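Entry type: protein chain
Record version: 2
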Amino acid sequence: MCSYRGNTVGLTHISIVEGNPHLRSLLAWHLQQAGYVVGQYGSFAGARNAFLQRQPTLAIIDSDLPDGDGIELCRWLYQQRESLILILSARNTEKDVVNGLKAGADDYLRKPFGMQEFMARLEALMRRVKAPVAPLHLEYGDLKIDLAQRRVQFQGEYIELTPQEFSLLYVLAQAEGASLSRNDLLRRAWPDAIDNPRTIDTHVLSLRKKIETDPRQPSLIQTVRNVGYRFNLEALQEMSKTEPSNLTTAYPVASMR
């Protein structure tokens, strides 16, 4: 486990417990672009084990999980009295909605739903939280990720990134040194389902050319054999100790849509 942590104070943690992997990935992508830290779980057991370690600010729970009833998970989480809960459900009767709300849900969203409605419901729930919804930026040593302007500063210089490169870098840095498989990166950093994990390799190569001192011998974005990639936060920590940052004038960079 990486001992170096970025400046993540004030981040809002949202957990998605959804049995459909495509919907789970799509929701996570939109939330990450909005600046939230997102955990993804596809089962009742996996989510409950994670919640025992750390409860999220908001839990988004599918009512029909492959290994259990999401309403029961909602009821259990409500008893902990720490997380807001949004139920997603294909159960559309009035009785179903009432049962979900009585189980402890703060809101109940019927499937199918549009992404604009989903984000509006989420923002309405987050207004109940006194802490900021999301930080203005993340800092990992000499790497600064501006979530509001969708731009990246590295060693005092602004780096021009495409929207997808920004998303990929954000997901890698947010993992705080953990290794992520190509499939993990596709689910977290891409808005649409893509079946070719090698797409990640192409974007990693492009990203390395922009932030690595020697892209042929990368020290920041490391390849993890038989796994995927990790962002080397230890190397960033050492850079911040040994290399002074010289601020330069910013120039326009690509923005995320």
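Comment: The first strand starts at residue 13 and ends at 17.
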